[in-house]
Amino acid sequence: xxKTIVVWAFVFAVSLAGAEERLIPDFDPDIAEEIMEICAGCxxxxxxxxxxxxxxxxxxxxxxxxxxxxxxxxxxxxxxIPMIPYANDHELSPEDVKNITAYISxxxxxxxxxxxxxxxxxxxxxxLEESKKMTNIPxxxxxxxxxxxxxxxxxxxxxxxxxxxxxxxxxPALTGQHSNxxxxxxxxxxxxxxxxxxEDDAELFRSYTDEEIANxxxxxxxxxx
Length: 225
Description:
Layout: E1 11-14, E2 21-24, H1 29-43, H2 63-74, H3 94-106, H4 124-133, H5 144-154, H6 156-159, H7 179-190, H8 201-207, H9 210-222
Helix pairs in contact: 1-3, 2-3, 5-9, 7-9
């Protein structure tokens, strides 16, 4: 990305199902990359998150969804201790929020390393940088077949047939998200510490057994193979 030129562009992406056109708003890359230097301390330089589940992957998520969550942090409707110093209009103005969310949404993380081109000289530094971006969720222990059946019954209408998310519903992608992070969020919803979709969802999530949740996570972990 050329930092000397302000790039105003519309970027289109198509969902895994191929049915939903996804628009990423224009943004100022210079401002966005400056803000990203702060975000990277927790979420990684490519917004790839952490496998331990402490910080989620943000790259590629719906910018409107990301903006919505930041507003929840600002209004303390969603409590997240590490975000408190940054979730205010002084640190993140509304304009900054729009810039950083569009920028993060534009980041594409490969699921696999590219094949080596034997006709070209091997570039170890470029290969290392590519490996840092590569995000493929390890298979989670559980029964993916049973998990897929339950997912289709309970989750697909909002989060998409393959967990790719639905932008119009502000339902985030689950496929490609770290399994441990998803499990942490399920536990928070069960305890009423995070609002899901309705007040009744805490009870709904408590009705699922730990085995059923593990099976759904197992199925999701296979979707980015």
